[in-house]
From TrEMBL:
<keyword id="KW-0547">Nucleotide-binding</keyword>
<dbReference type="InterPro" id="IPR003778">
    <property type="entry name" value="CT_A_B"/>
</dbReference>
<dbReference type="InterPro" id="IPR052708">
    <property type="entry name" value="PxpC"/>
</dbReference>
<keyword id="KW-0378">Hydrolase</keyword>
<feature type="domain" description="Carboxyltransferase">
    <location>
        <begin position="23"/>
        <end position="284"/>
    </location>
</feature>
<protein>
    <submittedName>
        <fullName>Biotin-dependent carboxyltransferase family protein</fullName>
    </submittedName>
</protein>
<dbReference type="Pfam" id="PF02626">
    <property type="entry name" value="CT_A_B"/>
</dbReference>
<keyword id="KW-0067">ATP-binding</keyword>
<dbReference type="InterPro" id="IPR029000">
    <property type="entry name" value="Cyclophilin-like_dom_sf"/>
</dbReference>
Length: 285
């Protein structure tokens, strides 16, 4: 088990998300940056479906109540074990009563703590992902006890770590395909969409990212239609909203673009005043 000494800015338990409940208005949720979460689980030879701890902007302090093995991937918040720096993207053995802390932000917005065997929190609607009104709590809190699965005794220590693609954090490019209402835009609006650089506003979270710049339009409003993570909406005021993992299931704004899965992952590592640029791809993986 893990005791939360300090929850930090915003830390949640997440897995791949819950699917099949959109008709009940339940969002998908799940890890914001699936690339980094998958990397952490893979290094520990965990199934990619295992739940991890998603830590936003660091500030988290955790005490391990039993011996286990961990891996931290994603953003670099200067992790330390018992006040000694540890590597990202590497197997780390922790002993009972060891304390893991996160300090200075070096790069990125969200890091992922994977536990060998996985987090063993309750499964609700086929997922362990925390979300308000679905799970008992929508984030972890000071004093919480996080259950973890039993770790096999076998373990080999390694001081090596896996190098990640730097462009995952540095690239401004978000690949996308056209959305259902893309052709409602004029030629000029389409050109502006793919030539301008946009800035992330202070309104960004697990539900969506709003951009500062305006794309003037007189597009008609929609009847409420389906949306999903990665949908880019255009509001009557010209604001662009990039929906993310905890987004609503339906919306009434024109859906002009759809981000690729890779772009959703990249976006999750960006924050206020970071810039992005859309690029159109006809075929996305």
């Amino acid at each position: 088990m893990i005791k939360v000494l300090k929850a930090g800015f915003y830390s949640t338990i997440q897995d791949k998300g819950r699917f099949g409940f959109a008709s009940f208005g339940v969002p998908f949720s799940g890890v914001m940056d699936a690339y980094s979460a998958d990397l952490a689980n893979s290094i520990l030879n965990n199934p990619l479906t295992n739940a991890v701890l998603e830590i936003t902007f660091g500030g988290c302090i955790l005490k391990f109540l039993n011996t286990t093995t961990i891996c931290i991937s994603g953003a670099d918040f200067s992790p330390k074990l018992n006040d000694k720096p540890i590597l990202l993207n590497s197997k780390i053995r922790v002993q009972k009563d060891d304390v893991l802390s996160f300090g200075k932000i070096n790069i990125g917005v969200r890091c992922y703590l994977a536990i060998s065997g996985g987090i063993d929190s309750p499964i609700i609607l086929n997922s362990r992902s925390q979300f308000k009104y679905v799970t008992f709590s929508f984030k972890i809190n000071n004093g919480d006890i996080i259950p973890i699965k039993q770790q096999p005794k076998e373990f080999f220590s390694s001081k090596s770590s896996i190098k990640i693609h730097k462009e995952h954090f540095s690239s401004e490019i978000l690949e996308c395909k056209v959305g259902p209402e893309f052709d409602w835009l004029s030629t000029t609006q389409k050109e502006k969409l793919f030539t301008d650089i946009f800035t992330i506003s202070k309104n960004n979270n697990r539900m969506g990212y709003q951009l500062n710049e305006i794309l003037n339009n007189k597009l008609p409003q929609l009847l409420t239609s389906s949306v999903l993570p990665g949908t880019v909406q255009l509001t009557p005021s010209g604001k662009l909203i990039l929906l993310t993992r905890d987004c609503q299931i339906t919306g009434g704004y024109p859906r002009i673009l759809q981000l690729s899965e890779n772009s959703i992952n990249r976006l999750s590592q960006k924050t206020t005043n970071n810039v992005i640029k859309f690029t159109l791809k006809s075929h996305l993986s």
